Amino acid sequence: MSGSSPSTIHELPTPAVIVDIDALDRNLVTMAAARPGGTLRPHVKAHKCTSLAALQAVRGHRSFTCATVQEMLGMAAAGLADDLLLANEVVDHSRLLSLAAAQDQGASITIAVDSPETIDAAAHAGVQQVVIDIDIGLPRCGCPPEAAGELADLARARGLIVRGVMGYEGHLMAIDRVEQQVRVPPAFASLVTALDQVGSDVDVPVISTGGTGTFDLHPLFVTDAGGRQIPVEVQAGSYTLMDTDYASRGRPFEHACWVLGTVISRSRHLVVDVGLKSLGMDHGNPSIAGATVWFCSDEHVTFAPDPASASPLVDVAVGDRIRVLPAHIDPTIAMHDSIWLVRGDEVLDQWPIDLRGW
Amino acid sequence: MSGSSPSTIHELPTPAVIVDIDALDRNLVTMAAARPGGTLRPHVKAHKCTSLAALQAVRGHRSFTCATVQEMLGMAAAGLADDLLLANEVVDHSRLLSLAAAQDQGASITIAVDSPETIDAAAHAGVQQVVIDIDIGLPRCGCPPEAAGELADLARARGLIVRGVMGYEGHLMAIDRVEQQVRVPPAFASLVTALDQVGSDVDVPVISTGGTGTFDLHPLFVTDAGGRQIPVEVQAGSYTLMDTDYASRGRPFEHACWVLGTVISRSRHLVVDVGLKSLGMDHGNPSIAGATVWFCSDEHVTFAPDPASASPLVDVAVGDRIRVLPAHIDPTIAMHDSIWLVRGDEVLDQWPIDLRGW
């Protein structure tokens, strides 16, 4: 970093996303131990940052999941395109053309399809590889399992290479653990059945599922109808940075990310310059260690020290920095331009959040 | 627009913010009739768009409210700097220096202060004009009314020009109308009292308050201790575009803004490519006319036609465009790069959302 760059968090312009490099690294190590190599297909939508994705690749995961065309193109531009899966349906012809162009320049591009229309759109634009997206219980994208074989036939008839299947049990991410242990296996079993119906046109079929909430409830491998050992890819992303929602569910990952703010007002309460425009709010209010969050406004969180906390905030002054812990990391990250890497209060580096937009 | 630009909404890349120019104009006319000229100081945080602010200026409002330094600088760069008020506290020295630089280039810059620290920060950076921010009941920024006079003295001692006071009754924006009618006047009265204590160093003192939720509950003018008729500035912004939250409260403004999406999947339900990363979610789920919204994901809204609706959605196909009505407009706008101006399905123009960031 140049001499004029911030050397501590006290010099950062706020609001600012800060990531603790050591906590992040421990999360990467923990996940890579649980799901090594190709048994994890990290989802970049959680961090939207190619520098962070590169660390995931260093930990052995070289196949990635994306939610938008922009994420796919950004990963390709960053040289992380060994095997990119767009786990989402797209019918926008010009965007699909841009994916086909990336593919023609050497990126491995695969997209999810769940209907004749999405198959037509992929074929028409020249995208070559697809997976059949299966509805395994979440009412979102995905075809009924019983329609998967027919769709695969249609895709092949249109000249597409069918690599296998994906299915996301998003309805089971945020439920009680015991209930998860009961309900995730049958959802996954329906995906395995769908793979048998779909088949695969490549050496190693794709079966892709799950997330941070269920990463340890899926096997590492399954055996397909042809007797092949197939890696089960889990599409986890939030494990890297975590948030209060996932942390409350007892996953073995640490908070690695905060939105740093500056205290701008102090009276019977405190106000920090982090708000609705710098925090994903769909999972509710953020948290501040040692304090109680009262409410959020566009550019503010109002909070007060919590005397009942193990270490309540004390002696907070206007100008002090405060770490605000988002309730949901994915939409939070999408609101910011860059991640500041920190160790304690020391600023080590700045990473662009370069996969934003659509 | 160039020949290759979209001519209808069916050609727009999605998600895309669309604004109905006629509904917007009616909202501008309605507000300008209710609060003409300087009795409205439009808040740009709702739309973050200098092209839209320019229309507000055409309707007679040439003083603006901002929430961030970036909004102030963007308005100055757009030549809309007759009288810019940063209705927020800032202690970031380099950002305050940039405001002072804009001021030295001819912009009229005023910032809110509520503490010795924020006064010091303004004076140290060379910003010349301030208002004293008064806590009139919302626990956020603002000094206690009884401290206002002393802070004004301190500001003057530091060489600052004290223009008057501001106070935002945000705690009364979203309550029952009858309760508003009871509680807004005394909150405003405390601001008037504070102005008497603060005084003003300029010809026309500033008394700035309110929002879209209370724009019609404030007088247009008050008489100060010196017998002067002073315009009461209301800091409304959301009236321009509206959202489902404000609409539910019976304000006389129309929905003028939607996030346009494309249907990407259809089965027992429908899925549109608008989600948590393109919608402010702090006021809850968005709405879709003729349909019931089931839930939102990062890049999706799952919904289904509502048979009980007056005109339920019918015959929706993959690839169709759907208008999603945000629950809260301000954070929604902050997630997008541009506004597409439309009349019906026709696309008229593209405006950059050029006041994003901090």
In terms of topology, how is this protein built?
The structure is a homodimer of 358-residue chains.
Chain A (H helix, E strand, L loop, with lengths): L15 E5 H14 L15 H9 L4 E4 L2 H9 L5 E4 L6 H12 L4 E5 L2 H10 L3 E5 L14 H10 L3 E7 L9 H22 L7 E4 L11 E3 L5 E6 L9 H4 L9 E10 L3 E3 L18 E7 L2 E6 L15 E4 L4 H5 L4 E6 L2 E7 L6
Helix pairs in contact in A: 3-4, 4-5, 6-7
Structural account:
Two copies of one chain form a homodimer. Chain A has 358 residues and is an alpha/beta fold. Chain A contains nine helices and 16 strands. In chain A, strands 1, 10, 11, 12, 13, 14, 15 and 16 form an eight-stranded mixed β-sheet that branches. In chain A, β3, α4 and β4 form a beta-alpha-beta unit. In chain A, α3 packs parallel to α4 and α4 crosses α5. The longest helix of chain A has 22 residues. Chain A is elongated and about 70 Å long. The two termini of chain A are 30 Å apart.
